[in-house]
Amino acid sequence: MPSTQKPMRYGHAEGHTDVCFDDTGSCIVTCGSDGDVRIWENLDDDDPKSISVGEKAFSCALKNGKLITAVSNNTVQIHTFPEGAPDGILTRFPMHVNHVTFSPDGTKVAAGASDFMIKVVEVADSSKQKTFRGHDAPVLSLSFDPKDVYLASASCDGSVRVWNIADQTCTTSWLLLQKCNDVINAKSICRLAWQPGTGKLLAVPVDKVVELFRRETWDSEFDLSDSLNVVVWSPCGRFLAAGSVNGNIVVWNVETQQCIERMRHEKKYSICGLAWHPKYKQIAYTDTEGNLGLLENIGDVEKPNDKVASAVAKDYNDLFDGDDDDYLNGDTIEPPSSPKTGDHEDDADDLIQPPGHGRRAVIDDDDDNSLDIGLIKASSGLLEKEDDGDDQTGGFAALPASSTQQPFYDGPMPTPRQKPFQSGSTPVHLMHRFMVWNSVGIIRCYNDEQDNAIDIEFHDTSVHHATHLPNSLSHTMADLSTEAILLACESTEELASKLHCIHFGSWDANKEWTVDMPKDEEIEAICLGQGWAACATTALLVRVFSVGGVQREIFSLPGPVVSMAGHGEQLMVVYHRGTGFDGDQCLGVQLLELGMKKRQILHGDPLSLTRKSYLVWVGFSAEGTPCYVDSEGIVRMLNRALGNTWIPVCNTREHCKGKYDHYWVVGIHENPQQLRCIPCKGARFPPTLPRPAVAILPFQLPYCQVATEKGQMEEQYWRSVVFHSHVDYLSKNGYEFDENAKNQAVKEQQELLMKLFALSCKLEREFRCVELADLMTHNVVNLAIKYASRSHRLNLAQRLSDMAVQKASELAAAQQQQEEEEEEDFPKHSNAGYSSSATEWGRLPGRNAQQDQEVEDAEETDACEEAEETPEVHRESKKNIFSEWTGSSPDNSCRLNKELSGSIFQAVPAVAAEKVHCVSSAVPQLSNVLDNMTKYSKKTSLSGSRAVNKQNPPVIKPLTPRPKTKQASAASFFQPRTPATNPVEKIVEEREEKAGNESQEAKVTEQENTENRRPKTGFQMWLEENRANILTDNPDLNEAEVIKEGMSRFRMLTSEERMVWTEKARGGRVSDLAEDKKRKRPPAEEEEVSKSQEQKPEDTNASKKSKPLDPSTNNRLSAFAFKQS
Amino acid sequence: MEPAEVEFLAEKELVTIVPNFSLDRIHLIGGDLGPFNPGLPVEVPVWLAINLKQRQKCRLIPPEWMDVGKLEEIRDQERKEDTFTPMPSPYYMELTKLLLNYASDNIPRADEIRTLVKDTWDTRMAKLRLSADSFVRQQEAHAKLDNLTLMEINTTGTFLTQALDHMYKLRTNLQPGESSHSQDFW
Hints:
The complex is a heterodimer of chains A (about 1100) and B (about 190).
Chain A: E1 4-5, E2 9-10, E3 17-21, E4 28-32, E5 36-40, E6 49-52, E7 57-63, E8 66-71, E9 75-80, E10 86-92, E11 97-102, E12 108-113, E13 118-122, E14 129-132, E15 139-144, E16 150-155, E17 159-164, E18 169-175, E19 193-194, E20 201-206, E21 209-214, E22 220-225, E23 228-233, E24 239-244, E25 248-253, E26 258-264, E27 271-276, E28 283-287, E29 291-296, H1 302-324, H2 343-352, H3 369-379, H4 387-403, E30 432-437, E31 441-447, E32 452-458, E33 467-470, E34 477-480, E35 485-489, E36 498-502, E37 512-516, E38 523-528, E39 532-537, E40 541-546, E41 551-556, E42 561-567, E43 570-576, E44 587-593, E45 599-606, E46 615-620, E47 626-630, E48 634-639, E49 645-651, E50 662-669, E51 674-680, E52 695-697, H5 709-723, H6 725-732, H7 739-762, H8 766-775, H9 778-790, H10 794-825, H11 836-841, H12 845-865, H13 872-876, H14 881-886, H15 890-906, H16 909-938, H17 942-951, H18 962-974, H19 981-998, H20 1000-1008, H21 1018-1033, H22 1039-1052, H23 1055-1078, H24 1084-1091, H25 1096-1105, H26 1109-1120
Antiparallel strand pairs in A: 1-29, 2-29, 3-4, 4-5, 5-6, 7-8, 8-9, 9-10, 11-12, 12-13, 13-14, 15-16, 16-17, 17-18, 19-20, 20-21, 21-22, 23-24, 24-25, 25-26, 27-28, 28-29, 30-31, 31-32, 32-33, 34-35, 35-36, 36-37, 38-39, 39-40, 40-41, 42-43, 43-44, 44-45, 46-47, 47-48, 48-49, 50-51, 51-52
Helix pairs in contact in A: 2-4, 3-4, 5-7, 7-8, 7-9, 8-10, 9-10, 10-16, 12-15, 15-16, 15-25, 19-20, 19-22, 21-22, 21-23
Chain B: H1 3-10, E1 14-19, E2 26-28, E3 31-33, E4 42-45, H2 46-54, E5 58-61, H3 68-80, H4 92-103, H5 110-137, H6 150-174, H7 180-185
Antiparallel strand pairs in B: 1-4, 1-5, 2-3
Subcellular location (chain A): Nucleus, Nucleoplasm
Keywords (chain A): DNA-binding, Nucleus, Repeat, WD repeat
Pfam family, one (chain A): Mcl1_mid
């Protein structure tokens, strides 16, 4: 089995590095040319502890809680470990020190310097020094004999010497290396090493081989080959690892002389530091470019190899067993006679605890491996992915433990609870940190020698100017809104934990207030809303204050708080619901509204997090939808339309280039869809300097098969639905919102549905078509029916129309019911249906009417514009029930309804009763109409259409504008109307009349037909053709003037020309009629219209407005067409 | 062309700014700009960026190439090669001047950048003079110079072409066989 090689990560600035493990192996310690010593909890540790030891660090060694470093001011320093406090200077040299190393018992330190000298100093008493002179060039490397008798050294003069420590004499010397004048010119740094435990072999990396020298005889025992720089022994002394100049790492089993691992550095940088984990089969290594890497599960090949190699091993053991026995502690080398019996256990034992190895002093409890694992886990804070690896090795290490009588819990391990945090802040221990970065501004905190201050900067300087505050209370938490700054600090010995608010929005002179928490209560999280501030404390309380400093609500939390966020009157609190296991957090969330109507929306529901992740950001979108981000970069948003569930809307890690890159979220906007965040290279959070720039990520719901057109459109559709559900929420809670944006969104959604419909049609998936049509609004269903019948899918068209009927009747029932309810208590509606049309119904009637008014205005302008004349998609989606079933002339019924609802307000019971009657009578009519429709759609003959015409009672055109204006003024009593509408309507009527005069035939047809039939006269067709000309000639004409101008021009044409147009108009009308039937324009409507004379003007009005609808629907259909052959 | 005209052209280049005000999309002849959201980077032409910067309405994010490391590389490359190397922006000199004059507080190590760009410019100008010199000296008919920016062409263009005209005239007069007619011209 090959060992696993974790990808390299950035450790230090480019240059020479060194690496070692601490005594227990719980962390990796590296030093580099940037002068820092970093303590990594594991390879994925994004926030290693840094100790600055000097300008450059050449070498480090760690033992017994003392960290020895050789730094560029030619000293060897001691620091305490893991605190990193300076603990004095051990010794000084006139030149750079190239290597420092501890003696096995940790009492002495050997240092070799560029002044050719080697010193051995006692750690406890630095005055006790021994000097070794003899090298003729800078000393490269040193190694203590595990038995503390010899010291080996390599030097640039090419020699490797073994010194007797006691009398400082050179025992032996080999000329092995290439000579050079300085360390930087040396081909290799020749990190030699004694075999741990017995010290019977000295390994020296020489050019392309590791030479192994036998103790005492100092003969070259054998070589292991590769181009090498560094060698280290595994703690058990059976394995030897070597790193080479060209980036190879090779591991040998020394007894068998077999290479068991061969690893290649990703970028082939020279390996300059290697360290074995004191217990596990791990090697940490660093290169000359400052990167840190880790190899795991080294030597797992052992077992299969053993059988093959046992014979060799036996021979080999015999070779030096003779004089080895003296040095053995007894259990180092397995008895050659029984290679299999104790093999497994020995393996483990050897790797874990090398007998006679000095580390025993530190780990007092040899066998309590389980405890150690627990310790390691606990110390590694929030467990990262590496745990998997750890668990494996851990399991390996735990094997012998089971044979000892220690009770050992083998189940899932509880996860340490994540600490409380403020969203948009960087870790507290940093000297320069962001206390908060949100959509309002940035609060930075500087906490260095000269200054302890807080800088507040607003994105929009019109909110407030930038401010600088002294941070005398050492605040650690902050939040920022457009009206206040909220700060909080932990308690000190004298002072209680304080909440400090700077309410710059206040109009009085006193803008600040502070509140002391009760004794022993610490603030853990704070947030600001609109007009209130809140803090959560260690007493599991949430305290709400008004922004002016009045204490308001107070409530208990079920668990320790993790984070809080506020927006408007919403407060979201995330807390620990319980203990998570195996790296998972167990969080709950409460969402409250603190406005006039106080209520709880999320009652401590579990918060969905990605496995083994923790929460990193909690907040609201700019529109007020709760969102959060976990450490795996998944952004989730509350989907209010689906029973307050959480939907993942973005995976920021998908956008990251490197494995260690992250995006630090600062804000979420739903319209436009923007995820604002800061890209951080190789870290989870950005530094304060250089000032990071905000980037924008798109959202994407994790739908399947987004590579295909279908998946893509589905994703777009549902994303649009999710990201516009806030509109419903806002309207329900009486906030103002952008009507246009909503219309835009509905239009976009319906367009997507129509495209999907067309795609499914093309793929012959008719059932799917029906399913899609179910999501459409009524008018788009009409389009879909049309599309289906055009593409000769009559079965589909029939089903769709059935569905349309059903839908309409359902809605009618719902509406009726709703109106009945309304009469009793109208604000009690909350319809949280999933489809947008359904939610529309949940609106309050007052608002509904108001919207209709707005829609009308929009329509009227639309009618004038004539550019793309059917904004029905968004227009009709707003229509009430009457428009739903009358279909093509929505305005008529909509106004009718408006009047009726107006009359409800007036509480005229008679009218209300009449309305109910209308509704109930309408339903059977409706079905008739649609039956007709489907019949006609099958045989699109002219005679059929004629028959319909005959059924229709002739409608007298309202020539006098008076009743209309009267009616309009009556309507304006409830809703203000735009005055521009009426003149235009009048003109349109006039036009029709005149056009009628122009051609006799047209006139006849016109009178026969109802307005709804809207036949095109020759003049209209001519006008459509020539409108552009008129407009170019007289660009500043308005609609009415254009028509007038057009009429005068039309009159100037010869009679033949006019006839041509009239003929055309007649030809066109036939097809129009056919189309009309398909669009199931109910003739019933006319009957109803004729009932009341008052309503007629509207009727005509409506029909005229939707006149240019047909050509434009064609356009639209052609846009959707997926080229049917 | 005047240097001021070249600079004017350079002002159409886009740079990124972080506005500290809120403004909807603005519609200009040259195209739409914005919308401006406080704290959100947006691309605008240099002229607008400078205008906003002077009114302290924005913070400028220097172009990617305006970085000491990258410029050092460019300068070294320029010194190493005999021909002109491609510049990071066709208006590198103008942009450096403009941005460093008006927004040096938003550009880290502004002085070093100024020096580096000036060094690069000097190197290129020296090359340009050298090539002009060898062009004239060898009496070449045509030459091709790649990767020159407008400002650089502008510095020697007019002078060189005029000088060549004059020289041509002088040379043609020296040719034997020319009639006294041209002598009159002189």
